[in-house]
Design a protein that fits this description.
Blueprint: H1 9-20, H2 23-35, H3 39-67, H4 73-78, H5 86-117, H6 128-137, H7 139-158, H8 161-188, H9 193-201, H10 210-224, H11 230-235, H12 245-272, H13 283-293, H14 298-329, H15 336-355, E1 365-366, E2 369-370, H16 371-398, H17 401-409, H18 416-441
Antiparallel strand pairs: 1-2
Helix pairs in contact: 1-8, 1-12, 1-14, 2-10, 2-12, 3-9, 3-10, 3-12, 3-16, 3-18, 5-7, 5-14, 5-15, 5-16, 6-13, 7-8, 7-14, 7-15, 8-12, 8-14, 9-12, 10-16, 10-18, 13-14, 14-15, 16-18
Length: about 450
């Protein structure tokens, strides 16, 4: 049975970065930064990404590349006759839930693109907040858009790793960077733009709370697609002789760069145009049209950005569906298409309540949150950190130190110091940090 593989290192890096770069960096980070104090929160996010996210990303790469198997079977191979495979199950379940509400946002982007084609977004004096509220409260349109988004995701994943995911990632990821730069230039030339830059990059540590620390940690996991074994599955398609350090650094670097670009594109415009940085999940959909309204050929630029943002969102969706499909297919490529449709259909059904959370189910709340926000909180603040904690314990405990050294440094120019630093962080720092933040968030310390 022929094994799925990436055709090139750059293909893997772009696909893995595509998994990380999407709603996490472009949509969620700006609004979470806005409601969590600005620069201080972004600094926390950066530190968590480098000192917690990168070591954990390398840990998932080690698990996947060394076994050549997806989540669940990878853990079973390393620790047979044990219950550690639960980490893989947790990752599959988390990805399943995550994609159920992630696809809702993908649907919102699709609806905005359709409205933009009809010239129904960028209009002088338009109330973009009201437009966003009207769009996401239309239950029929939102469900249809969510289904369409998942349909595209299913079609790509069903075609396989090289012909589907890798080919798509190589096509439009570079274009996303280019258009972001264009948007930033325009945003920074608006009046009072520097106030937004200061809010985003100048830390105000007085605004830091235990909740914002937990959010920053959860966001670093969310943005790097770690804690759910997605990167275990993606790295399982790497050739045995490939390095994992350089791709990991590239993925983290690209993710942080995009997060920086997103903040520089959005917050100067927020302050310039009189919006509140605490706009919430609608920040991207409310502010960006107002920015493009100020630009020559604004409607055209908005359409291009929506296409590329939709692609970035899709590349993340590919990875979430891939971990589910790879787990069900167990390496049998002939079953990939069937399980892509089955998994995609079930995810759509699970996502219906989230899609209706701002429409016909707007009055339904649990623990003070609507269904969409509750699913988001469950994934970002509980399931992902739990997965990260278990992985940080599993790798030093169940994989021999010399095996870890060989896997990490194989075909890499990094010296033994890098391994010792990584191993120390994984064994002593990552678990302690996660446990402390958890206990603090629960009011137990």
């Amino acid at each position: 049975m022929e094994k799925e593989q990436w055709s090139s290192k750059i293909g893997f890096i772009l696909a893995a970065a595509g998994s990380a770069i999407g709603i996490g960096a472009i949509w969620k980070l700006p609004y979470v930064t806005g409601v969590s104090g600005g620069g201080a929160f972004f600094l926390l996010f950066l530190l968590f990404s480098l000192f917690i996210g990168l070591p954990l990303l390398l840990a998932e790469f080690v698990i996947g590349r060394s076994t050549g198997k997806e989540a669940i079977r990878a853990y079973l191979q390393i620790a047979p006759k044990s219950n550690w495979y639960f980490i893989g199950i947790l990752g599959v379940v988390t990805s399943f839930v995550l994609l159920s509400f992630y696809s809702v946002v993908g649907g919102w982007i699709s609806l905005y693109f359709i409205k933009g084609l009809a010239g129904g977004i960028v209009q002088e004096g338009a109330d973009y907040g009201a437009l966003f509220g009207t769009t996401i409260s239309d239950s029929t349109s939102v469900l249809a858009a969510q289904a369409t988004f998942l349909l595209v995701t299913i079609l790509v994943v069903a075609k396989g790793v090289q012909s589907g995911i890798e080919k798509a990632s190589k096509l439009l990821m570079p274009a996303l960077f280019l258009l972001f730069l264009i948007l930033i230039v325009r945003s920074l030339t608006l009046d009072h733009a520097l106030a937004g830059v200061k809010f985003f990059l100048a830390p105000d540590f007085a605004s830091i709370t235990s909740e914002s620390i937990l959010f920053a940690m959860g966001q670093s996991f969310f943005s790097l697609s770690i804690g759910v074994s997605v990167m275990v599955t993606y790295s399982s398609y790497l050739p045995k002789k490939s390095s994992i350090i350089q791709p990991a650094l590239s993925v983290v670097g690209m993710n942080l760069f995009i997060a920086l670009l997103a903040g520089l594109a959005i917050f100067p415009a927020v302050f310039s145009l009189g919006f509140e940085p605490t706009e919430g999940p609608g920040l991207l959909f409310v502010v960006l049209p107002a920015v493009f309204e100020k630009m020559v050929f604004g409607e055209l630029f908005l359409l291009l950005f929506l296409v590329l943002f939709l692609f970035a969102t899709l590349t993340s969706a590919f990875s979430m569906l891939e971990i589910v499909v790879a787990t069900l297919a167990k390496g049998d490529r002939t079953k990939r298409a069937k399980f892509s449709w089955i998994a995609g259909g079930l995810i759509f059904l699970l996502g219906i309540p989230s899609a209706l959370s701002f429409g016909s189910l707007a009055e339904v709340t649990l623990f003070g949150k609507n269904i969409f926000d509750l699913a988001d909180f469950l994934v970002s603040n509980i399931l992902m950190p739990l997965g990260v904690l278990l992985i940080s314990i599993f790798v030093p405990l169940k994989i021999k130190k010399e095996v870890l050294r060989q896997e990490l440094l194989q075909h890499s120019k990094a010296g033994s110091w890098f391994f010792h630093l990584w191993y120390t962080v994984m064994r002593f720092i990552v678990p302690v940090v996660i446990i402390i933040v958890f206990l603090d968030s629960l009011g137990l310390i």
